[in-house]
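Q: TonB-dependent receptor, please. Structure only.
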Amino acid sequence: MSRTNFRRSLVAASVSALFALSTPVLAANNDGTITGKITASESQSSIAGATIEIINTKTGFSKTIQTDENGQYRLRALPVGTYTITVSSDGFSSTKVESFNVGIGNQSVNLSLNPQVGEVISVTGSRVAMVDTSTSESALNISAIELERIPVPRSVTSVALLAPGTTRGDSRFGGASFGGSSVAENQIYINGLNVTNFRNGLGFSNVPYDFYDQFQVKTGGYSAEFGRSTGGVINAVTKSGSNEFEFGANVYWEPASLRENSPNVRKSDGTWYSYRSDNESSDLNFNISASGAIIEDHLFFYAIYNPRKNEGQYDSTKTGGNFGDYSSDTAFWGAKIDWHINDDHRIELLAFSDEDEEVTDTYIEEDGELKYQSTAYDKSGGMNWSARYIGSITDNLVIKAMYGELNYDLSSGSNVADECQLVYDYRYYYGALTDVPVNGFSVGCATSNDYFVEEGEDTRKAMRLDLEWQIADSHLLKFGFDHETNTSASLQKYSGPDGAYWLVNNAQDAYAGVTLNGVVMTEDTDYIRNRFRTVSGNFETTASAIYIEDIWNITDSLTASIGLRQEAFDNKNGDGDTFVKIDDMLAPRLGISWDINGDGESKLFANYGRYFLPVANNTNVRLAGNEYDSRTYYVLEGWQQQTFANGNTYYDPILGEQIGAVNILADGSVPDTRSVVDADLDPMAQDEFILGYQAMINEDWRWGVKFTHRVMDGAIDDMIIDHAIASKFGCQNYHPHQYVLGNPGEEMTVYTDTNCDGDVDGWATFTPEELVYDKAERKYNAIDLNFARQWDGVWSLDATYTWSQSYGNAEGLVKSDNGQTDAGLTTDWDFPELMDGAYGYLPNDRRHQFKIYGAYEVIENLTMGFNFNLESGRPISAFGLGHPNVGEVDYGKTYYISQAYEDENGDTQYTYTKVGRGQMGRTSWNPRLDLNLKYEMELMNMQTQFRLDVFNVLNSAAETRVNEDIELGLGKSNPDYKLPNAFQTPRYVQLSASVKF
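A: Structure for TonB-dependent receptor:
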């Protein structure tokens, strides 16, 4: 066989698994695995005992193995990097695969050997990556090299958004939604260390883009090795050193002068609803890196230092707000040590600090001038490290062990926190205040930037042990254990001498004719609400899991993955006592992949998996801490002008008669754990079904189609049970609030008040009918259609269309409707009327989405890339202040309603129609086109790169979120309903340059 024919026969079954979306890969933590089969080219018979040698061309790491009796082989626990693969056998010519890039997970390399003719046949490794017929997992594997060709914002979230089935979350949260799940249900790992924010699931450790080497984005069907996620998993590996000493430096600049602003919005009366023309933002990042060998072939280092400067301003004075000037400039540092003790044993050490502090100077407008008000700070990040051992005990047994610690600062405060209170006048905000004797919406001397004060820190201590044992030619057994201890320290309060904040309103807008704390309000009553809330303590959660999985090669063309994961978590209160403990979570993971023709060119695959989500530490702090939370209402008599220390004026409210009693939601004591959690609490779980097909079109192109179905099996949230207590035990006007963490729509057993005296005294079981709560539901269906052309040195293309729907009555751990980050304790299910009409299309529902990206080498060393995304709009709901059954208003606009109107006499009528959530239209389609140019050259013996990235080239300004409050008050329509609250990120430009030598 000629070299040309050999290449054609090999590549005809190949695609780039490194640059193609949704390419299934076998979970292998942070290492690479190469599997394949060696056959004779003429007879296609298996070659037993063939020798496969793999050598990392930069570190000298090597492994040698022989094929089994079926001609199959498996090279495990390979550090990611570039390798040369050599295959030899008596009577055959040797074959060498050069420049083969080993990424995270499994890759297949099947080779045919020619009868010995005295030559070594070479193949370029970038072209050898077949459809992996051994797995049913769905994931995107992509390296920093591939990402350099296309314009992608420099964030892990932006990489995740390249994968099918992922959508951008609400702008108030950030992050990505995987398969209809909320953005707080994902897990992010760096070199095996879980760096996800466990307080509420939002965010993760902020590592510079240039520190990463490989990304694996698991969108579904992942193995029993991974858990604690009902969304997706992002598995990243940082760069490492090699035998070559390398020094590099680069700069990324996003100038404010080349950044557009989102549109301004006016109300129907012509006044400003939002004004953004004077907003500015710029970002400047430097990276300085060094790597090399401390001991050649054995001990390597990589270090990076990242000075950075982000600064900008916002101006909301035209809408009654403040002017802010913000900046952050704390440098990041990171280091990686790799010790290859020998080719069978190695140790990896990782350490980095992502400490950061954003400082905001706030100004108020007074007499047409900006006057300094305060300086607020928000701290984040911390010191993190991990140590990892990988050992090949025998050719058939691999052991991996990891221990790491993560710290994340959550402190915030200001220089006026001791003396300034927040006072908001919603009469101004709703346009009901005709005489404005005060500063507008923000009345007091505190602002939204500095009224919340917290001293807090989250600490994770994590360990895991994984083993892979090839117990027979057809069975690879994987099993392991992982354990995390997650501790949240928190001291929270509101600013000011009284530690409270105030909200002002007018009865004609919200309370006319209804009862507030036992007092019937009249239309001309101005009232003010005081909220006082504190919580403190140390709260610990332990989470552990064991798993076992068998990768079973049933036949040469049929592979099954049979796994089982058992998870447990134990959440403790401020006294260290358990208040939630679930240890019987069994998560089966079943997958099957069929190489239809036995040639590696196509496969049919299916997968079923169950996934669990632990209770967030936010629940420990809020529900099981020593929280005190009270609300007191007063008649507003007027304002008293005060002078701030800097000479600015502000106003304190003059309080009149108290309206009713103090409403105490939490009394400051650590509650009896039996009274706040359902004794038979079930975990939040999700079942996932996947069916897909993938095939080669020719040696350059491949295509695939995949169907995904996800069903959330129950949720965990807090529910008030006052009404059930009153009904079950015959209480009259039962008042003490009892919030219980439970499964909505399910039976509940809890320690409660059985004699109506206001104190818990005995166990009781409430049926779903007595609790009157709907069962929590979330369903997701999707079809992904993908075409991809691998990079051949000239051009590449990847295109995916996704049709999907996400519907039910529960978004998940957080709530995009009102921007609530209170994970596990959202306003959903706080009482039954809040969920009336809540079933419908959920906020992360995007019915249609197109993702197309690629690159083209215009001339030698000049590459152009593009990244286009088009998605349909977000469903719009209608939220009102109350419900006909209860007239409840204290929760704000959180009820699902449809309309409010005035009758023929001009009297306000309030009606409720169950149209369901997400039924009031959708936001506009969101198109976005990103382009880049990259030029490489050698300058003074240095590899130099110049780059221009333009994001949102056409400056598309489609709205991404609108005002969904349909009422200003009970029965009073909101003229600002459906006005845009947020838009796509406007056009901005990134200029960059780098050198390496």
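A: Brief note, in case it's useful. The helical segments are 3-11, 144-149, 156-160, 426-429, 507-510, 617-623, 722-729, 768-771.
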